[in-house]
Amino acid sequence: MNCVLTVRTQQSGLTEFTRDIDTIVRESGVEMGLCTVFCRHTSCSLTIQENADPSAREDLERWLNRLVPERDALYTHTAEGPDDMPAHIKAALTATSLGIPIMNGALVLGTWQGVFLWEHRRGAHTREIVVHIGS
Hints:
Elements: E1 2-9, E2 13-16, H1 18-28, E3 33-39, E4 44-50, H2 54-67, H3 84-93, E5 97-103, E6 106-107, E7 113-119, E8 125-134
Antiparallel strand pairs: 1-8, 2-7, 3-5, 3-8, 4-7, 5-6
């Protein structure tokens, strides 16, 4: 089973969409298998991260921004704004797909784990996420 989710972001940072994937898994009827989640963009990424304390996500965002700053003199890809090339690098350093096991008809995530789209551009965006459920 395949479907496409739309995730809307307001700004850079992590946007959780675990519930959307949970719903797709439940509706698929698959009891044991794998949920593959794939991001169809080059300036955002996916991660499984803590969903209880927002300060963990804020710290991750600050750390990645410090690692990959805007306006680096080495960037040549600058036509789409100062946040574009850093966004591509951040996406390359993180992940554009995730595999999550399914057991007993549910995602096998830890107590504090959530699935997030990590927007690396500053502005609001509409992102497409492909979800594949296999048994």
